[in-house]
Amino acid sequence: QLQLVESGGGSVQAGGSLRLSCAGYGYTFITYCMGWFRQAPGKEREGVATIDSIGRTGYADSVKGRFIISQDNAKNTLYLKMNSLKPEDTAMYYCAARAGYCPGDFRYWGQGTQVTVSS
After folding, report:
1. Which tens digits make up the pLDDT trace of 59-100?
2. What is the DSSP code string of 52-74?
3. Helix (H) or strand (E) holding 113
4. Rounded percentage of the chain residues whose pLDDT exceeds 90
5. φ, ψ for residue 55 (rounded to 5)?
6. How far apart are CA 52 and CA 32, in angstroms?
């Protein structure tokens, strides 16, 4: 069973930066898709960024040019570097993983890490 543990959330002022990490434990996939999602209070969960095992990335329009998804396979860790943060980026951020390439349904989810951006 794959376990995902996020870290790196916190509070920051608008215009600031944060880097989220997601460490994977227990299993590795030869081909996979990993992603970052977020959910703000009263809103539906939305996809933020994805990356697969051959390095292809995808971003939501709302974060293109500001967020960067990356991975360190040696550390089994996924990252999300968030720059030029806006108050509307405030949400609980989750990482997720699935076997096979993107797109597709994600089977494994982390517990989330809170990001709060103040104006």
Report:
1. 999 999 999 999 998 889 999 999 999 999 999 999 999 998
2. ETT--EEE-TTTTTTEEEEEEGG
3. strand 113-118
4. 87
5. 85, 5
6. 5
